[in-house]
Automatic annotation (TrEMBL):
This is Helix-turn-helix domain-containing protein. It comes from the Bacteria. It comes from Lentzea kristufekii.
């Protein structure tokens, strides 16, 4: 079972985003038969089997084994991952042209999701995540942004050589919202 599957195909998202399928997938955290899942969810095995087949077809669950029960082969299924992340591109951009300037931040957040989802989690990964709030009076905004750009440019210049381990640095700076 993978830690994360990044969903960037509409058919995968459509398969997953049905409330009953999400519940079936949760029950498949450990290998289970459709009959076992049906008992927990108070559904018929046939109904659960239909949803499981759709999840398997979309690559969101897999058949991990079979067993013989009362002369019939019964499949055991398991979720393909512990988490499923949806690409923001599946929804698309909604809003006026003025709002599209912030679209770069959405693209940046998606790139971070793609990169993190693709990491090999079998070993410790050197990473850092920082989030904070800075309050800047309106008359000092330009100075703040210029200092931020200069500081980052110094880091990129100092560590931007062609040798060594590659790290992606992503910084998003945006107005916080209602209580700014």
């Amino acid at each position: 079972m993978r830690d994360v599957i990044y969903l960037d195909r509409m058919e995968q998202a459509e398969t997953l985003l049905k409330p009953q399928r999400v519940e079936v997938l949760r029950q498949l955290a450990a290998p289970r038969s459709c009959t076992e899942v049906a008992e927990v969810l108070d559904q018929t095995p046939q109904r659960v089997h239909y949803h499981v087949k759709q999840l398997v077809k979309a690559g969101l669950a897999t058949q991990v084994s079979e067993r013989r029960v009362r002369g019939v082969q019964e499949g055991l299924y398991q979720a393909a991952a512990r988490s499923y992340w949806l690409s923001p591109r599946l929804v698309g951009r909604i809003g006026s042209r003025d709002e599209l300037a912030l679209g770069h931040l959405v693209d940046l957040a998606e790139q971070i999701q793609v990169d993190v989802a693709a990491l090999d989690r079998s070993s410790e990964l050197p990473s850092v995540g920082v989030s904070g709030e800075i309050r800047v009076p309106p008359e000092e905004r330009q100075q703040f942004l210029a200092e931020l750009q200069t500081t980052l440019q110094e880091l990129f210049t100092r560590y931007g050589g062609a040798e060594g381990d590659a790290f992606r640095i992503a910084l998003a700076c945006y107005p916080k919202g209602e209580d700014r």
